[in-house]
Structures are given as C-alpha cells and as structure tokens.
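dumping these here so i dont lose them again. two proteins, back to back, each one seq then structure tokens. dont judge the mess
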Amino acid sequence: MSIQQFSSSLLENAVNEFAKLPGIGRKTSLRLVLHLLKQTEHDVEVFGNAMIQLRKEILYCKVCHNISDTDVCRICSNHSRDHETVCVVENIKDVMSIENTQQFKGLYHVLGGIISPMDGIGPSNLEIESLVKRVTDENVKEVIMALSTTMEGDTTNFYIFRKLAPLNIKITTIARGIAIGDELEYADEVTLGRSILNRVEFTNSFK
C-alpha cells in the first residue's frame, strides 16, 4: 500500500492527528481535515477550543465516577432519581447506553473497566472498593450488575458479588436478553431496556 504524499506538511500533520482517533483511518482523517479547511476560521477555532476546554476542565463525579462538569454529576444530584438503587457499569459509554433506554431511574457506579489479568487489570485498578464503601455508608438497597456478558464481565460480576454479599443488600444482574459475549454499548436500546427491567437475582443467573 503506497503512502499518500501531501503537498503541505501542515495538512499531513493534521491528518496524522485525526488518524490517531479510534476507528478513523487515513482516508476518513483526510476527509475530515479537508472539511474543516472549508469552514470559517471562527468555526474551526470554536471546534478546537471545545476540545481543549473538554480536556482541561472535565471532571469525574466523586460519587459515581461518571464524567461531569461539577464535583457531583447531574444524575447523582438529581433528587427525583432512586438513590437506593445503584447500577454498576464498566465505563461512561455504558451509562449513556442505559440512559438512552429511559427505563432506569436509579444511580450508577462506573468501575472504569473490568477485571482482565491478560491486560494487567486487577480489582485494585477499578472502582470496586469505592463501591463497597458507598453501599456501606449510604442507604443503598439494590445493586444491579450491568457489565458486559463476556468472561471478563462475569468474572468481575462474581468478584463484586462476593464483596457485597455480606452487606445484606439485594444484588441483581441484567437479564440475559443481552447475548452471551456481547458488550453493553452494542446492544439495541429496546433489548437493553428490557434487560434492566427484567433483571434477576444474581445467584439465579448461574442456573
């Protein structure tokens, strides 16, 4: 495959930076850069400044670890949400996926990943201890395990279940409307919404 030649090093540098984004090949990167060149200087500055401001000012909720503009995110600070139910998810994208279903009115806890020894990710690398402390200190009555139905997701589910079991709370998991091996973010909203509503006791998920 021949390497594309650019008449401008500025253009080449911009294409190379866009190509670093996940799922963006060099052809798509070039198309995006050329599109920006057609925009006004003001519009490009607004675009660039939005990215810089995002990186500099974005916060993570001190309660659930979701992205936020403030110390406590809008979901955690919303008094109309069910603060007795906490849904445990792998990442921020999973929060967005579940919120899009409009079927869940509780709170979230973002682990920041799942246990994966092959990738060097253990329990200490995740927000598991903060979940245990949250359940211990707050009036949490149900924890929903909403991790991807992969081997790593199930391993993480079981580890968290063992940590929470002594606390005498209800522990459930999303119904297996999500196919085995599927990641949560790729599930359609109807299936995901039903999986939340039809959740089952965690111990029953082994049957």
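---- next one ----
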Amino acid sequence: MATKSKTKKVKKTIKHFTEGRLYINATFNNTIVTITDPQGDVLTWVSAGSAGFKGTRRSTPYAATTTIEKALEKARTEFGMNKYSVFVRGPGTGRDAALRSLRANRNLSILKISDVTPIPHNGPRPPKQKKG
C-alpha cells in the first residue's frame, strides 16, 4: 500500500523597496539593465534581447529606451520602487538614450547618476621591439 507524502506549499514573500540601484551596462552589442535592492542583491533584470530585439537592433538607442522602460515597469509593479541610484557602465550607443528616457520619466526620482566604466591606468603591455 503506497502512502502519499504531504508537501507544503511555500508562500513566496514579496518585499517592497522604495529605493534601489539601477545598473545600465551598455555594450556595443546589447544593453542590460539590472535593478537591485540598496544592499546590491539582484531583484530583476532586462536585456535588449529579452525585450524582443534581435541581431544588430539590440545595440540601438531605441532598444535601450525600451529596455529601461520594461525594467522600471517590472520593478514598480513587483517591488514598488520609485527612487533609484543609477550606475552606467560601458561605451555603447544605448547609454545616452537610456539616461534620456530616465530623465523623461516623471513618476520616479533619481538620487544620483554615476559612471562606473572601468578605465585602465596604464593600458596593455606594448608590443615587443622589432629585430633588425
């Protein structure tokens, strides 16, 4: 005789944050937006590829704008966020468009905007000298 094992359903607790961090990683091929809580734990993320853009259209400013809007809407509905500290990284074409769309959005407040693009202090090793 087989016995049924009882499984308990675990309730998913939804945390609400009023403030968070928004990371924009703008590369030459894609734009990735990550939203974290104030401690830096990832809550949600959206990339231009997951927003529905394929191929070279992922690197366009329009794709970056759409990606930002989807990420903000996702964070607003799930976590109730409306204040952000923005960190921008990378040389991509979507970085300026992403910041413009953030400033155009009226129902959120931006606490600070920081550029955290890594810059080499000394650069790569130079090529070896020619023989001869």
